[in-house]
Design a protein that fits this description.
The complex is a heterodimer. Chain A is mostly helical. Chain A contains eight helices and two strands; from the N terminus they run ααββαααααα. By secondary structure, chain B is mostly helical. Chain B has one domain. Chain B is built from 15 helices and no strands. Chain B starts with a helix and ends with a helix. The chains are: A mainly alpha, B mainly alpha. At the A-B interface, helix 1 of A face helix 2, helix 12 and helix 14 of B.
Chain lengths: ~230, ~400
C-alpha cells in the first residue's frame, strides 16, 4: 500500500517533468550536411539472423561507397515434398544472407583520401559542360562517355564548379542506372590496387601506410596512389 | 390567459417539475461537457505521466479531439451481432446510462442548484449505481460472445463485492452528520471538512469508488489485455459511446459524492459555490486519472481478497470505533474521532504494506528454494508457489 503512494509520487513527478517527444514532421533534428542517417546492420533479437535481404540498395546509394554486401543463396526455390500428392505448390525457403558491411578492404571515402584516377590532368573542358549539355544528367553522361565511368575527382571538380555538394552529385548519379560510379571490374579486392579505388578503410595512419605499401603507380601503370 | 399561466406557474407542483427539468438539463450539460473534457484529459494525463504530450493535433493542445471523436462515434455504423438478442442489445446501453444521469438529480452543485434534496440523498446514488450491474450483465449476456460474458460476470462479482464496503465506509459520515440529506451533510462541514476527521472513511470510500466505476486498477469488466473490451466487445458506434458516457458519468458521480461528503461540497470562500463544487469534483477526477496512470491491474483473486478480507473488516472496525467514540465523548467527539481515524489509516496502510511485502518475500524464498531446479534462472519467470511438502521432498 505504501508502494502505491510511492508510485503516485513518481508519476506526478513525471507529470510535471519536461516531455521527450520530438514533434517529428515539424521538428527535425539538425544533422551534419553529409549525414545519411545511421547505417547499421540489424539482427532479429530472437534468432540472431541478419535482417538484411541483400537488395544491395544501400551499396548503390552510399555516396562514399563504404558499403560492400556479399551474399549467397543458401536456400533457393524448392518443390514442396509430395506428402499430399495433389499439392504442387512450390515454396521458397528463406534466403540466408551474409552481409559483410565492414569486412575486408573497401574504397575510402573521397573526403578522407582522394584517390587519383586516370582522369588526372586537364579538366578545363568541364567548365562549360553544363551549359553545353543543358542538364546535369547530360553532363554526367558526357563525363562517363569520356572516362568510361564517373571518376570521383572529376565529380568533385564538377561539384565545385556548380557550387553543390559532391554527395548530391553522387545521389543524382546513383539514381540513373546507366551511370557507373566505378570502372567496370570485378570489384574491390584486398589491397585495392586496381582502378582508382586505391585505399583501405582503416584508421588514418594505417590507411596512409597501406597506401604507401602499394606499388608505385607510375610504374604499375594505370592506377596511381594517393598523395 | 396570462392569469391562467400565472396560476399554473404558481402551483408548487408545476414549479417543482419545471425546476427538475432545469436541473436535469444542467446535469446533462455538465455530464456531457465533463465527459468530453475527461476523455481529452485522460489522454493528456496519461501522456504527460509517460513523458509525452498526448493528443495535440486537433485544435489547440488537441482540445478538439473529444468532439471529433464524438462525431466519429455518432456517424459510425451500428453493428448488431447476428446471434445477439437484439432488444436487450439495444436496451442495455440505455439501462447503463440512465441511472447515471438519474443520480445527478441529488448532486448539490450549489446551495440552490440541486434537483431534489432528498432526505435519502446519500442512499439514492449508491442504489442507482448498483443498477449499472444489471445493464452490464444484460450487455454481456445478449452479445453472445465469450469475452462479453466473462467481462459481465467479473463485473457482477466485483460490483457486488465492493458495494458493501462502499456503503459501510460512508456510515461514519452519517454518524457524524446525523442525516442522509446531502445538503445537510454539507452544512455540517462548515467548521471542518470530514476528510480531516474521517480520512480512513475517505480512503476506503475512494478505493471502493475506483472499483465501483470499473476504473484502473480494478478495471476488470473491460480488461483490454484479456477480454478485448469485456462486456463492450460487441458494441460499436453510439451504443458503445453510451457505455463510455455511463462509465465517465459514474466517475463524476463518485467524485461528486466524495466532494460532497468529505470536502465540504460547494462551501468555500470568495468564489461562488458552484465553482468550488466543480473544482473539487475535478480534483477527484484528476486523482482517478492519476491512479490509472500509476497502477497496473490487480489479479481477480487479489481483487476479491481485498474486498472481503481487508475492506469489509476495516470499514466495520471504523464504524465501531467512530460509534464508540461518539458515545464516549458526547460533546466534542470530533477530535478523538479524528485522531482514531488517522491512526486507523496509518495502521491500514502499514499492515497492508507488511502483508504485501510478506507475499513478495515468500515468493522470493520459494524461488530461491527452487533455484537448483533451474526455475529461478529464467528472468521474469513467475514462480508458482508450491507446498512445503513438495519442497522438502525435492531437497
Amino acid at each position: 500500500m505504501l508502494g502505491v503512494f510511492q508510485g503516485l509520487k513518481i508519476t506526478i513527478k513525471h507529470f510535471f517533468s519536461p516531455k521527450v517527444t520530438r514533434m517529428y514532421p515539424y521538428e527535425k533534428r539538425v544533422l551534419p550536411e553529409r549525414s545519411r542517417g545511421l547505417i547499421q546492420l540489424i539482427t532479429e533479437p530472437e534468432t540472431g539472423v541478419l535482417k538484411c535481404e541483400a537488395c544491395l540498395l544501400c551499396e548503390k546509394v552510399c555516396p562514399p561507397r563504404a558499403i560492400t554486401i556479399r551474399y549467397e543463396e543458401r536456400n533457393a526455390f524448392r518443390w514442396r515434398p509430395l506428402a499430399r500428392p495433389k499439392s504442387k505448390a512450390a515454396y521458397y525457403r528463406p534466403r540466408e544472407v551474409a552481409a559483410y558491411p565492414y569486412e575486408g578492404p573497401r574504397p575510402l571515402s573521397p573526403m578522407v583520401l582522394a584517390p587519383v584516377s586516370e582522369a588526372d590532368g586537364d579538366d578545363a573542358w568541364l567548365d562549360g559542360l553544363l551549359e553545353e549539355q543543358g542538364d546535369l544528367v547530360g553532363a554526367l553522361r558526357a563525363i562517363q562517355e569520356r572516362y568510361g565511368h564517373l571518376p570521383r575527382r572529376v565529380l568533385m571538380k564538377l561539384a565545385r564548379n556548380l557550387g553543390v555538394s559532391v554527395s548530391e552529385l553522387f545521389s543524382s548519379a546513383s539514381l540513373s542506372p546507366d551511370l557507373r560510379l566505378d570502372p567496370i571490374s570485378d570489384g574491390f579486392v584486398a589491397g585495392a590496387t586496381n582502378g582508382d579505388s586505391s585505399a583501405l578503410v582503416l584508421p588514418g595512419p594505417q590507411a596512409l601506410q597501406a597506401v604507401e605499401r602499394q606499388p608505385n603507380p607510375s610504374q604499375g601503370g594505370g592506377a596511381s596512389g594517393a598523395e | 390567459m396570462t392569469e391562467f399561466v400565472q396560476q399554473v406557474l404558481s402551483d408548487p407542483t408545476v414549479q417543482r417539475v419545471l425546476w427538475l427539468i432545469v436541473t436535469l438539463l444542467w446535469s446533462l450539460l455538465f455530464l456531457l461537457t465533463s465527459v468530453l473534457i475527461l476523455i481529452w484529459g485522460e489522454r493528456k494525463v496519461l501522456g504527460f505521466v509517460q513523458d509525452r504530450y498526448g493528443p495535440h493535433h486537433t485544435g489547440k493542445w488537441g482540445l478538439l479531439q473529444s468532439p471529433v471523436d464524438a462525431l466519429k462515434m455518432m456517424t459510425k455504423e451500428d453493428v448488431v451481432p447476428l446471434l445477439a438478442d437484439r432488444v436487450v442489445f439495444w436496451l442495455a446501453p440505455i439501462a447503463f446510462f440512465a441511472p447515471v444521469l438519474a443520480a445527478f438529480v441529488v448532486l448539490p452543485f450549489s446551495d440552490v442548484l440541486v434537483g431534489a434534496d432528498l432526505n435519502i440523498g446519500l442512499i439514492y446514488p449508491l442504489a442507482l449505481g448498483s443498477i449499472g450491474v444489471v445493464a452490464i450483465i444484460a450487455a454481456g449476456w445478449c452479445s453472445n460472445s465469450k469475452y462479453s460474458l466473462l467481462g459481465a460476470f467479473r463485473s457482477a462479482a466485483q460490483m457486488i463485492s465492493y458495494e458493501i464496503p462502499m456503503v459501510l465506509s460512508l456510515v461514519p459520515v452519517l454518524l457524524l452528520s446525523n442525516s442522509l440529506s446531502l445538503q445537510s451533510i454539507i452544512r455540517q462541514q462548515e467548521g471542518i471538512w470530514f476528510i480531516l476527521v474521517l480520512p480512513f472513511a475517505f480512503l476506503t470510500f475512494f478505493i471502493c469508488g475506483l472499483a465501483e466505476t470499473n476504473r484502473a486498477p480494478f478495471d476488470f469488466p473491460e480488461t483490454e489485455s484479456e477480454l478485448v473490451a469485456g462486456f463492450m466487445t460487441e458494441y460499436s458506434g453510439m451504443r458503445w459511446a453510451m457505455f463510455y458516457l455511463g462509465e465517465y458519468g459514474n466517475m463524476i458521480v463518485v467524485s461528486a459524492l466524495a466532494a460532497t461528503l468529505f470536502l465540504g461540497g460547494w462551501q468555500g470562500p470568495l468564489l461562488p459555490g458552484i465553482v468550488w463544487f466543480i473544482g473539487k469534483v475535478y480534483v477527484f477526477l484528476f486523482i482517478f486519472l492519476w491512479v490509472r496512470a500509476t497502477l497496473p491491474r490487480v489479479r481477480v483473486d487479489q481483487l476479491m481478497d481485498f474486498a472481503w478480507k481487508w475492506l469489509i473488516p476495516a470499514t466495520l472496525l471504523n464504524i465501531a470505533v467512530v460509534a464508540t467514540l461518539a458515545l464516549v465523548f458526547p460533546s466534542g467527539y470530533l477530535i478523538p474521532i479524528g485522531i482514531a481515524n488517522w491512526l486507523l489509516s496509518g495502521g491500514f496502510v502499514w499492515s497492508l504494506t507488511r502483508y504485501m511485502q510478506g507475499r513478495v518475500e515468500k515468493s522470493k524464498r520459494l524461488a530461491a528454494a527452487w533455484a537448483p531446479m533451474g526455475t529461478a534462472e529464467v528472468p521474469g519467470k513467475i514462480v508458482v508457489a508450491a507446498g512445503e511438502g513438495v519442497l522438502a521432498r525435492r531437497s
